[in-house]
Design brief:
7-stranded parallel sheet, 5 helices, 17% strand, Rossmann fold, alpha/beta
Amino acid sequence: MPNLLMSLLPTFSSQSNIAVVGASGGIGQAIVQLLSADSRVANLTAYSRRVPPSGPKNVKTAFIDLENEESIAAAADISASNGPVDLVIVASGILWQGEHLRPEKSMREIDIEGLTRLFAVNAAGPALVAKHFLPKLRKGSKTVFASLSARVGSISDNRLGGWYSYRASKAALNMLIKTLSIEHARQWPDSVVAGLHPGTVDTQLSRPYTSRTPQRQLFTSQISAQYLIGVIDQLRPEDTGGVFAWDGKRIAY
């Protein structure tokens, strides 16, 4: 945890109003824990489909379902009730679910259920969050809308194939981020809309697929969250529409 006299967000408003979507996941929880102790954060609302029973005393928890637009609109209104929003982080995502929805190893495994489910959560969900939260952002100072993407969503970086639904849903997210950034910049020139690659993180999402990852390349949720917040703080208006890795390097689409 950062010292209360310090801040991980020195380039943001001194009374920042922050929303974290997907706050029940590993990275989302870690982001909430770090920012709840930050001296520049006045309000933090943690949104998830499974609202936790308790958390840091200065964090409000609320419901959101990325497949229910009414809940997303309601969430945006909750954050805006604290004043203009400074930072929105979408930390949700899906790679696998249950016994039947798994990353495809070959084209023979592609099916409509997997494609539809991953596109709904990984691409359409963050786009709908942007639709309702971007108009709530503060004007006249730095603001950021950041959604977790993935390096495997890069078309130019795809050398191994496989993981069709996940790769395609993240590539779609990257295009949505780029397109949203163009429209948003017309009225919010100080704002940034960006995708973030958190690295390979030891969470429920990736755990079944990290057995071959060298230990030095496998991050804890806390380490990844700290890196991502650092990248967010370094983002500038000219970065809008881009996708950035945990180390701040831009990822090609």
